[in-house]
Amino acid sequence: MTRRRRGFLIGAVAVFAVLLSACAGLPMSGEVKSGLVLDDVDLPPDISQIAAGPLEGASPEEIVEGFMDAALTPADGWKTAREFLSPDLAQTWRPNAQVTVDSSAAAREFTADVTGGDDTAQEGDVRVLLDQTARVDESGAYTQLSGDTSVVSFEVAENADGEWRITAAADGVILDAEAFPQVYRSFALQFYDQSWTHLIPDVRWYPRRGQIVTTLTQSLLSGAPSGWLAPAVRSAFPSDVALARESVPVDTDKVATVELTPAALALDATALSRMRTQLEETLRPAGVTEVELLVNARDLNAGRATVESPRAETGTVVLTESEFGLYLGDEIAPYAGISEELVELASSVVSVDVAADETRAAVQLDDGGVYTVADGRVDQLDTRSGLVEPSMDPYGYTWSVPSANPRALTAWESDVTPVSIANAFPDAASISHLRVAPDGVRIAAVASIGSQPWLVVAAIVRDQDHVPVELGPVHTIARLDGVALGMSWVDENDLSVLMETDGSRVVLTQDVGGMSSFAAAPGAAISISGGNSASAVRILDADGVLFAQRGTTWQMGLTDVLVLGTRAGQ
Q: Contact at 8 Å (CB) between 362 and 392?
């Protein structure tokens, strides 16, 4: 029998989950026996849906449907969901093993095959057809998928009371795209780059519950960076240092007390300060303002390490017929050694990316070539055909690549020396846009993979002198349903992509390791630039009008702009 899903079997909705008993879901890895109530951290109260248990006389399809609905209620280790399982399976089922995210619960289709009856107990299989759009692994890492149809199977049997229960099911839960963010919340584990100067976010998703400080601390100390990011980052916590207690209490001053194993006593002041800083920055979004590291209740007196923060916003890079520089207020402030030369080339400039120290700019001209402008000179870098717009990194390298040959990715030193990058986008047929992140550790691209356009990221592996050597594994983060016109980094972990889709211009904002959102863009938009926040995003249209987003609308600004430039890391 095949049928459409009838609707949620929910007992009550929009209930504040502020009771500890309603927030004690299992962590994504390891065992947490106690934790903090939600009021102990500065997070908005969670709103949960409370699923109903099995109904008497429910059919095999209804039992499976109810089990899937119960994924909405993670309280007490998904206690309600376990009621749909046989006693043996309820003991062994691991809901925290993974999350399957599908497009819509209403689109699921159920098919049941049942055997037995009369003098024999009935048993059977229930298959669910769904459109899988994403998955979350046991570590909490989120991966978007292509939305292909997949089948999930369950074995069911009648119990002694004549009621159907699930006797075999894969570990993990299934949630649709709308319900997923109601049950899970994203946080970023922070890892250092290889030089210990930047903290790099690694987004993970955990069930909404009160003991998130404990869960984040456990994940940072006992876990590892996501596979795609791991080649370029490190943790300050040695492998032999672990939590000595199963919970991390937070006092009324938002200070988290972290009791470590005795191995931490052997660490020097530098290591301890890096550990404290890494953990504080990881816990800050959970409301923690300070971390104390202890061993056997003795304060280790860990200091704080110095890490580089994003630079303050200083305006928008623009090129007009007569000026080039930072547009701030009503003036365009020029760059010494750059602006005069670019104005002379204004009519042929396609793109401009200004170095972090503002002493150099990477420029693409209408002949397709890539050049650098510095100290009043224009130097030719790359003359290969079909180059995408260049991107500068915080170490002064200019990155360029032919659109049709992604594996030929090259980083150019300031003295015009090319550095070939190994393992660059091995599965990509082409690339249309490329941007290095402000930390210099990650690189994003719009790449054609399997005949589909994807937004992808990879880690940049550098040597001890910051020279880029190779890329780590490519991680696909979003499939694009349209043609990309521009791409930029926004804040520390978001990407904005200007796209044309179905004849309209839209801006996709994509969290690296998370979910996406769309907003309408000006109808004739042709390019985009980013910044430290969403309010810093600027769009240029085909008429040379600069737009800034104000709320849900785009406000017109400077006119007669030839090129909307960017700065390294945008």
A: yes
Cβ proximity of 498 and 528 under 8 Å = yes
Q: What is the pLDDT of residue 41?
A: 54
**Least confident among 31-45, 406-420, 421-435, 525-539:** 31-45
pLDDT tens digits, 321-338:
999 999 988 899 999 999
Enumerate residues 6+ apart whose C-beta is below 8 A from 467: 419
**What whole-number distance in Å separates Cα of residue 468 and Cα of residue 193?**
13
- Taking the CA atoms of 83, 85, 88 and 90 in sequence, report the sign of the dihedral they define: negative
Q: 344 — phi, psi (to 5°)? A: -65, -30
3 state DSSP class of 170: coil
Residue with tokens 């055997």: 115
Q: What's the CA gap between 570 and 561, in Å, rounded?
A: 19
d(C-alpha 406, C-alpha 313), whole Å: 32
DSSP letter for each residue of 506-548:
EEEEEETTS-EEEEE--TTEEEEE-BSSGGG-EEEETTS-EEE
User: Tens digits of per-residue pLDDT, 531-558?
Assistant: 888 888 999 999 999 999 888 889 999 9
CA distances from 143 to 20, 151, 269, 475 (A): 30, 19, 37, 8
